[in-house]
Amino acid sequence: MKYSYSRLQCFENCPLSFRFRYIDKLEVEAFETIEAFMGSRVHEALEKFYIDRNHGKIASIEELIVGYNDLWKRYLTPDIVVNKEGLTPEHYRIVGEKCLIDYYNRYKPFAIGKTLSTEVMVNIDLLGDGEHQFIGYIDRLDAVNDGVYEIHDYKTSQHLPTQDQKDRDQQLALYEIGIRQMWDDIKEVDLIWHYLVFDKEIRSKRTSQHLEDLKQEFLNVIKRIEEAEAKDDYPAIESGLCSWCAYQEHCKLKKHQVKTKQLPLNKYMTEEGVVLANKYSELKAKEKEFTDWFEGEYNQLAEALIAYAKKEGVEFIYGTDKRVRVAIKEALKFPAAETPERQKLEEILKKDGFWEDVSTLNIRGLEKKIQEHEFPSQLEKILKKYATTEETTRLTLSKIKEND
Ligand code: SF4
Q1: What single DSSP character describes residue 240?
Q2: Across the chain, what does the average pLDDT equal?
Q3: pLDDT exceeds cutoff 70 at 108
Q4: pLDDT tens-place string over residues 173-227
Q5: Is the reported ipTM for this assembly greater than 0.90?
Q6: 3-state secondary structure of 294
Q7: Ligand 1 binding pocket mutation candidate from 11, 14, 239, 255 (most atoms within 8 A of CB)
Q8: b/e per residue 124-161 (b: at least 16 CB within 10 A)
Q9: Ligand 1 center to residue 150 CA distance, Å?
Q10: Ligand 1 atom with the shortest distance to the CA of 237
Q11: Which residue, by CA, sits nearest to atom 7 of ligand 1?
């Protein structure tokens, strides 16, 4: 299998969407958002600019903008999706134009560096042994000095990451591994992101140790993908990305919502699942109301009983056919789990050989560790022999968020 950064990223974000996309290869209705459309046109305009520059022609700012607007007109179709209310494609065209004007003014007269390639495909042999092959695309690759290379990435998103986030960015660092495999003379590689909407450049460098660590991180993800494939187990991970997921109608977390959203109101309100979920929600609301009332009453009564027992010096308080025992005694309180004091306490018990007497097996912890494959596989197999599999169900009620 040939990997790519986006393939691994997809698995990290949600293994189930990875399965839909790369294993099942489900066909989904393709649509392009206006943000993606604008980003593509800006990329293309800059690509042409640097190709011309390599041929000795530095386009003027006007030529750059005319080129961009030509591309915009040529490719804009009515089915490009504008999600943000109140905005039109024209708004985005102007944003793209402004990105290019700012970029031009920032880097003119474009005298530094030689562009080796634009939209360059990089093949990355992760460990250099042919076992883990990656493919990636670099917006622009420049050579600035003898042995000094720059990997450029254009961004038109409305989000500006921090320096720290870019210092941990994996994508361009992966491409650096590929670039270093392409030539022998590489002394330095600069990773450069152009956040065009903010007219901001972010630079980062990687040490050889960083690159080695990164290889290990990628290998770990590949291992998890292989395990998921072997077990055919691709869990769904719900996140903010679900709103953009093309597989919602296939996903067990989202398909009921997708199905019912399309129903007219009268059918929606009588749809079996909607009715059941609403009933459950009402019942839980009543339960909470009752529990709040009960706890208030109980606490008041308990306080009154304790006060009475203390005042009268009695342990049993007699009703007509039942009596209440009010046992008051000093209890020992130990430090909470996972605090340093608790750790010390456990160490003392272990050291003095009393741990076995007071500890019990944490079954939930054991199950979680097995489910998440945290034991060595041989031990996992042995432990599983002591377990039986049965279907368990748990209902939880949560609020539907605005962008769910
Ligand atoms: S909708 Fe969310 S949970 Fe479902 S497959 Fe897509 S990303 Fe995963």
Answers
A1: G
A2: 93
A3: yes
A4: 999 999 999 988 899 999 999 999 999 999 999 999 999 999 999 999 999 999 9
A5: yes
A6: helix
A7: 14
A8: bebeeeeebebebebbbbbbeeeeebbbbbbbbeeeeb
A9: 36
A10: 3
A11: 242
